[in-house]
Write a structure and sequence with these properties.
Chain lengths: 454, 343
């Protein structure tokens, strides 16, 4: 039988040694994450969701936020799991990310680059966010992506369609799941020619900013390659609400197609004006006059109401994909079910891309075994996956752009409800929308090196 | 030639909106001496009166259709408007279809109420304060109204279509001897132009031919003297504020099918309308109307592709350029009265 003399000093010494021993694994684990910005040290990890909560895209931002919340719920093992069940990678088990419970902070981009950068900076510096996602404008995406690159944070872009995001403004720490202007042009042009003929003259009205330019360039070059002629391209101010002065000359310009390179409220108003001026019923060059909207969104379609009936456009994803086109688009129904039961309506493509980006980030961290940005970059570059609603998809290493099928849609003539506004016309296969990383529309940029930050 | 005619029509239509807003602004400035930066918000509130009234007419109850399924595979719930129950499907649908013109009846009391509340609750406390204070407080009010609308209706534009009878375009080409389809102009924009002419005419007739209007005009010229005659000019001016709010409101109601109502549409018009007022001459009602149409037409011409190609961006600055030129040569504006804003 041994005797123990418990002295005050002995207790303190023993306690100190035991404490150090117990703390050692934690210290080593933390050391494994050191050397990069906002290395999570506790039992939680914080993600930053930077969406427009005010300004013209606030409704779109609200839908993105719903999707982010759903993704966090699923990552933490709550709810029905959504696309975790269908995702081809099985690294995620609903136990957070690398065993850390996922928490999130939100910011308001106001759809302004400076405001978006300020809120992203705050989320990085004050809230310790290790990844930033979201947005509803290419200008915002490019600005926040550059900030994340400097800070050593991963940026998983939300809705951004300009070629430049993964073109001249691409960054090693930035990734885009959403499709781009080039892909819209490549997917739409053959269908436009098929539906309206090769002998067409197009008149472009283009939003006077970065996204408008790349969309006009993509649409013009894709359609011209198949025989169309571009008769005029007119830039319209982003603040314009009444487009009548721009629409009125279209009918007598020699054009028989109007391409509206507009988005959001601009598109709703320009399309409404075009329909009011009778372009849908008009004839030119002996043909029925047609209107094309390169980038559709469900919220825009709802805003434009009956005016979108019969008008062709492109989408990154549609909530009806799996039901209408089968198991290739598996994951779609799981997400729609999960989102629909929680919120009472189907998700928009903005919600889908934000949800998927969050899962892809979590999966990359888990596969890499580290939150370090360079490890995440390595895990995402060239990553091939399936089961997230778009069919087989690749995150190309050269520019961090996802390559997948593009959905071509048409405004429904007789929608059954406010969520069923577009019908899927065709899905353009990946090969048809894939381009070389140094394609002229994407030239001039370089990924540079990944940045781990601090 | 056809292009010129189209742009003249366009200009007159834009000018109608500018003139209606500028008319109300001038009425308020001429009677109360208040520079009302919330006037654009009143135009926006009018447009949302159309949205609200359309929604009231479309109030529905759910009927479950077991034969169809919704996006989750559950039995489809279909909204059946109460109007269909009360008046039958055909008449009910027609009433809903005519929601925008009918909204005028709804908007008049609403806007008069808003006008009264604004004038009695806020504006009257700023009569004797500098114009800068009035501008700040009314601009603040405009932002508050805008944010309230956004909180209730969201940031996206809300489609509020014209009655089906007025959708589509009128073939002006045939009317003027051109080839068919060369000059098409939307029916509803023609309706808007006619409506604006009617309202402008009614306001002028009211001021010109009624005793009330005569007293108001006298008060605009010399408020103190009219007051000394024992006339309660303040009460009349309050009513004029409510009338000005009502003019902006009905202008907004009828504009709803042209540009889908959105929370910032008032701000889009506000600066332009002030330029219109200044160009027309502060305090001059005919000046506001004339300048509204003039600047509307000039803006439309400046947006013609040939002009924009020659002078990129000219359509964005033409109104301000003209304002600078007119104010340099005629500091009181085209029809401005001596002494207004010159103290």
């Amino acid at each position: 039988m041994s005797r123990h003399n418990l002295t005050r000093r002995g207790v303190i010494k023993t306690g100190a040694v035991a404490g150090a021993g117990l703390a050692l694994p934690t210290y080593l684990s933390a050391a494994g994450h050191e050397g990069f910005t906002n290395a999570p040290t506790g039992d939680t990890v914080t993600l930053g969701f930077n969406v427009p909560q005010s300004g013209p895209y606030a409704d779109e931002g609200a839908d993105e936020l719903r999707a982010f919340e759903l993704a966090v719920e699923h990552l933490n093992g709550e709810g029905d799991g959504g696309m975790l069940q269908t995702f081809s990678s099985k690294a995620l088990e609903g136990t957070g990310i690398l065993g850390k419970r996922v928490e999130y902070v939100t910011g308001d981009t106001q759809t302004k680059s400076d405001a978006a950068r300020a809120s992203a900076r705050s989320m990085i510096e004050k809230d310790g966010a290790v990844m930033i996602s979201g947005g509803s404008s290419s200008g915002v995406a490019v600005a926040v992506q550059a900030l994340c690159q400097e800070a050593g944070i991963i940026f998983m872009a939300g809705l951004t369609h300009s070629n430049d995001t993964t073109g001249k403004d691409r960054k090693a720490n930035g990734f885009r799941h959403f499709f781009n202007s080039y892909m819209s042009g490549a997917a739409l042009a053959p269908i436009l020619v098929d539906q309206y003929g090769a002998d067409r003259k197009a008149y472009h009205l283009t939003a006077d900013y970065n996204w408008g330019y790349t969309t006009e360039e993509a649409m013009a070059s894709s359609t011209e390659a198949l025989g169309w002629e571009t008769v005029n391209s007119v830039k319209t101010p982003l603040t314009q609400t009444d487009f009548s002065s721009y629409i009125a000359p279209v009918l007598n310009s020699g054009a028989d197609v109007l391409v509206l390179n507009h988005y959001g409220g601009n598109m709703v108003n320009s399309l409404t004006n075009a329909v009011q001026f009778g372009l849908r019923e008009a004839e030119a060059n002996g043909k029925k006059f047609e209107i094309v909207v390169p980038l559709y969104s469900e919220l825009m379609a709802r805003g434009a109401g009956q005016n979108i009936a019969g008008i062709l456009g492109s989408q990154n994803w549609d909530w009806k994909l799996e039901n209408q086109l089968g198991a290739r688009y598996t994951g779609t129904n799981a997400f729609v079910q999960s989102f629909g039961e929680k919120y009472g309506f189907p998700p928009s493509q903005a919600a889908h891309t934000c949800y998927v980006q969050t899962l892809l980030y979590a999966d990359a961290v888990t596969r890499a075994g580290s939150f370090a940005p360079c490890a995440v970059v390595e895990a995402l570059e060239g990553f091939e996956f399936d089961g997230l609603g778009n069919g087989p998809t690749t995150y190309r290493a050269d520019d961090h752009q996802c390559f997948k099928d593009v959905v071509v849609v048409r405004g429904k003539e007789n929608p059954e409800n406010e969520f069923d506004l577009v019908e899927i016309v065709e899905v353009t296969p990946t090969e048809q929308v894939t381009y070389a990383p140094d394609h002229p529309q994407f030239a001039g940029g370089s990924l540079g090196s990944c940045n781990n930050g601090a | 030639m056809d292009q010129i005619i189209v742009q003249v029509l366009n200009g007159l239509d834009k000018g109608s909106a500018y003139a209606l807003i500028a008319l109300g602004l001038t009425l308020i400035f001429g009677t109360l001496g208040v520079v009302n930066f919330a006037h654009g918000a009143l135009f926006m509130l009018g447009a949302f009166c159309a949205v609200v009234f359309s929604r009231i007419l479309s109030l529905s109850h759910e009927v479950v259709d077991e034969t169809r399924t919704d996006f989750l595979g559950n039995p489809m719930k279909i909204d059946v408007p109460y109007m269909h129950d009360i008046f039958g499907p055909e008449l009910g649908a027609s009433i809903i279809d005519w929601a925008v013109p009918l909204s005028i009846l709804f908007s008049i009391p609403v806007m008069i109420g808003v006008g009264f509340a604004m004038e009695r609750g806020l504006i009257k406390h700023f009569y004797k304060r500098p114009h800068a204070d009035q501008i700040l407080v009314t601009f603040g009010l405009a932002i508050v109204l805008q944010e309230i609308v956004k909180a209730f209706f969201g940031a996206n534009p809300i489609q509020t279509p014209a009655p089906e009878a007025f959708t589509g375009s009128f073939d002006f080409g045939v009317l003027l001897g051109f080839d068919p389809l060369t000059i098409m102009y939307p029916y509803w924009r023609l309706v808007y132009f006619g409506f604006a002419a009617l309202i402008i005419g009614a306001v002028f007739a009211f001021l010109q031919f009624t005793t009330f209007g005569m007293v108001v005009r006298a008060g605009m010229a010399d408020r103190e003297t009219v007051g000394l005659l024992g006339i309660d000019i303040d009460r009349r001016f309050t009513l004029m504020f409510a009338i000005a709010a009502c003019v902006a409101g009905v202008a907004g109601v009828m504009y709803a099918p042209i540009v889908a109502p959105n929370y910032h549409m008032g701000m889009d018009f506000l600066v332009l309308s002030f330029v219109v007022v200044v160009v027309g001459g502060m305090g001059s009602l005919p000046g506001a109307v004339f300048a509204g149409f003039l600047l509307g037409v000039l803006e439309s011409f400046a947006s013609m592709p040939a002009i924009v190609e020659l002078l990129p961006g000219i359509n964005q600055i033409i109104i301000y350029l003209v304002a600078i030129i007119i104010l340099l040569t005629r500091p009181r504006g085209l029809m401005g009265r001596k002494g207004v804003m010159e103290e």
